[in-house]
Design goal:
The protein contains one helix and seven strands, in the order αβββββββ. It has two domains: 40 residues; 93 residues, Sandwich (Immunoglobulin-like). A hairpin with a 5-residue loop joins β4 and β5. The protein is an alpha+beta fold and 150 residues long. It is rod-shaped and about 125 Å long.
Length: 150
């Protein structure tokens, strides 16, 4: 008789443990769900490559030496091999990184032609991670060698 009572008691304890375990599992999930802040999706922002600054500052009245280099600072790192531009009037130029990977320095191989030079950074310019330029960038610079004094 004692064996039957022990067996019934053991079965009762096992059933009670199983009920307690299964009863606590959903409560834990509900507690975790209530404590976690609701997830709000981040606004979808089209990320584009943009210039933060261009030096020297574009100014219709200022004139620079024809050996002046142009510094483009972007919002993302840019590889010079993916920096596409057009120079009008045509002059061979070289693009290289500056002090940071976000800076591209464009300089003429020899010199810019004297007068007004227009540099257009083309839309197929991309960042190091492949982000494209949103719009072409048009930059104009006046260059002239100083004339001799008396």
């Amino acid at each position: 008789m004692k064996k039957k009572i022990l067996i019934v008691f053991a079965i009762f304890v096992c059933i009670l443990l199983i009920i307690l375990i299964f009863e606590n599992i959903p409560k834990k999930n509900l507690v975790n769900k209530n404590n976690t802040p609701p997830v709000t999706p981040a606004p979808t922002e089209n990320l584009f490559l943009k210039t933060e600054s261009i030096l020297p500052i574009q100014n219709a009245t200022s004139q620079y030496l024809p050996i002046q280099f142009i510094t483009f600072t972007f919002n993302l790192p840019v590889n010079p091999d993916h920096f596409y531009y057009k120079v009008d009037p045509f002059v061979e130029a070289v693009a290289k990184n500056g002090d940071s990977p976000n800076i591209i320095i464009l300089s003429p191989k020899e010199k810019w032609q004297e007068g007004l030079t227009t540099i257009t950074v083309l839309e197929n310019t991309t960042s190091a991670t492949g982000v494209r330029l949103e719009n072409p960038i048009i930059y104009k610079i006046k260059t002239e060698f100083p004339t001799g004094g008396e």
